Amino acid sequence: MSLRFPIAAAAVALALSAGPALAGEQFVDGSGYAVSGYDVVAYFDLPQAPVGEAQPAAVPGRSDITADWNGATWAFATEENRERFLADPERYAPAYDGHCAYGVALEGKVPGNPNLWRIVDGTLYLNITRTIVGFWEEDIPGYIDDAEVNWQDLEDDAASTNPVPEFDGGAPVPAG
Fold it and tell me: pTM of the predicted model, to two decimals?
């Protein structure tokens, strides 16, 4: 791994310093839900912005439309999206168990922000902060290559317990 951006590497290192959680494989924040309670299937129905532009906001799931997979509870905006997820969860779940793809490229597990996303070749990737998105977008294919190699050593490590910075929280919307 090469450190292309020392400032970004320092930010990821700081996020790693709080230590890992023993909460399982999937990153779950204080909301208690994977991807902070946002509907992972809905990302695939949103228009994707060009690199350098902000993506559309993630779609909140509902607390009464959930499924359990990979040691976590996932929330969905519709029953149809839950069924699509259950039919092929690996297609919809974010890469690296919901951790920041750039962080994994730099050999660490840090939280992913559900509103900082990009789908590349059919895979959902999350990043930790808007600043990191800027670095990530400088060489998305290169960082994915680095992350894929690093993930082999990181996958079995405990999930991050760090809060998602610059994120007001998620959690699905109440039923009804």
Answer: 0.85
